[in-house]
Amino acid sequence: MVFSEINLLSRPQVRIDEYDYSKPIQGQQKKPFEQHWRKHTLSYVDTQTGKVSLEYRPVIDRTLNESDCATVPPAIRSY
């Protein structure tokens, strides 16, 4: 199987598992704000078993080169 086909076939399962962690549904409680705000979600699929695992990585708050681009702090969006 071509890598792109594996990726396309596994996306629905990964999306479902990720959704389970993002919002409360029957029997689940919403996670505290500090535990889910400003982080990257990384999903991995074991192609042999179909098992999906999720990991998280913090968002980088600073630009890589301050002289090229100043850091912009996060702000609350209000419309």
Automatic annotation (TrEMBL):
GO molecular function list: electron transfer activity; flavin adenine dinucleotide binding; succinate dehydrogenase (quinone) activity
InterPro entries: Fum_R/Succ_DH_flav-like_C_sf, Fum_Rdtase/Succ_DH_flav-like_C, SdhA/FrdA/AprA
Single Gene Ontology BP annotation: mitochondrial electron transport, succinate to ubiquinone
Residues in Fumarate reductase/succinate dehydrogenase flavoprotein-like C-terminal domain copies: 34-79
Top-rank taxon, per record: Eukaryota
Gene Ontology CC terms: mitochondrial inner membrane
UniProt keyword terms in alphabetical order: Membrane, Mitochondrion, Mitochondrion inner membrane
Membrane topology note: Peripheral membrane protein
Annotated localization: Mitochondrion inner membrane
Protein name per the record: Fumarate reductase/succinate dehydrogenase flavoprotein-like C-terminal domain-containing protein
Organism of origin: Phyllostomus discolor (pale spear-nosed bat)
